[in-house]
Amino acid sequence: MVVAASVVVATGAVAGVLSAFDDRTGPDQARRPEVSASPRLAPLPAVPSASPSPTESASPTPAASAPGTPSPTPSPSATRKKQERTTPVSSRLYRHPDSQVLDWVRANSGDPRHAVIASRIADQPAAVWFADYSPDTLTARVAAVTSGGAAQGRVPVLVPYAIPGRDCGGHSQGGAPDLDAYDAWIDRFADGLGSGEVIVVLEPDSVAQAECLSAGERADRFASLARAGRVLKAANPRARVYFDAGHSGWNAPGEQAAWLRQAGAASPESSDGIFSNVSNFHTTADEVAYDRRVLDALGGPGLGAVIDTSRNGNGAPSDGTWCDPAGRKLGRTPTLSTGEDRIDAYLWIKLPGESDGCKGKPGTFTASYAYDLASS
């Protein structure tokens, strides 16, 4: 169902970012907003699966969206335990050192799932979400991430997620109080982009889910999104801005492209292309084919697509289950070199292990879920 598809994206997207979720119930769960290399992951050898003895939860650390520059990312060890498989890590994408999975890894070194989660999830770069409406600190929080990436010569991936009426008032509802406030929020977001290379995944769900809006509301939202793209690219000409194309199981390519065109996604002043499959499970092959059809219908010079591959290794469940469905696994690791025409990147936009709300509290990292994804 289209309605079910829209819920998938919205719920999954917000699951990694909202600092409002404060539940930290032990070694299996951690809280906080989120952060985020290229071939498909190879199968892992067997690892311990026994339930660990309780360990102390990670002590709270500043959120990914907290002001100030985070401490440098520790270098991965040159050697790993036998049961830990080394995964290629992009030398170009930025791994922000402040995330829920890293909190869990630092606090649970004795957990039998530690090596798998550390090597296959925590070592990978992932997107950093900005889902709370806190304009006074926003510029500093964005700058903390972009300056961290610039210092390492790597590319951060940022997700502004504060459009009014997001998720049509569903699981991921929230955002700015109105579009005027949102426009001002985007101005502050843009002020933190710096001058280095950066990827901006602009407002998941904002276009694909726009059917819940009236024609007038939709036009107003699309005008704000077009403005946002222009502001972001004017603030940092090296910023690459991508617009919401939903996913291959949602809207028809022509319909999606028509809305994207209204939202400014065909204009090089606003856009570098589209993104798809955020927090979803559709295969990379399906997304590549779908995105090319959307781009063909959209038009516009030099546009490309980025695809969320974080949890799509086994594709989407046949029964349409969207909330932490069983039997899923990690997809292709993040890279800016896909080898596919017009596909600019495979990214981990949704961080694996952050629950949609079924295997753990919504918005929390759940070690059992992460381990299931990483060891499948």
Main sheet: which strands, in order across? 2-3-4-5-6-7-8
How do the SSEs run, as a string of H and E? HEHHEHEHEHEHEHEEEH
Gyration radius, rounded: 19 Å
Overall average pLDDT = 81
How far apart the termini lie comes to 27 Å
The assigned structural class equals alpha/beta
Strand-residue fraction? 5-15%
Strand element count: 9
Major pleated sheet? 7 strands, parallel
Low-confidence stretches: 1-26, 31-89
Assembly annotation: single chain
The outline comes out as: globular
Number of helices: 9
Helical content class: 25-40%
SSE arrangement:
Layout: H1 2-14, E1 29-31, H2 100-107, H3 114-122, E2 128-130, H4 135-152, E3 157-160, H5 179-191, E4 198-201, H6 215-235, E5 239-244, H7 253-262, E6 273-276, H8 284-298, E7 304-308, E8 343-347, E9 364-366, H9 367-375
Parallel strand pairs: 2-3, 3-4, 4-5, 5-6, 6-7, 7-8
Antiparallel strand pairs: 1-9
Helix pairs in contact: 3-9, 4-5, 5-6, 7-8
What does this structure look like?
The protein has 376 residues and is α/β, with parallel strands linked by helices. It contains nine helices and nine strands. It has helices at 2-14, 100-107, 114-122, 135-152, 179-191, 215-235, 253-262, 284-298, 367-375; strands at 29-31, 128-130, 157-160, 198-201, 239-244, 273-276, 304-308, 343-347, 364-366. Helix 5 (179-191) packs parallel to helix 6 (215-235). Mean pLDDT is 81; it is low at 1-26 and 31-89.
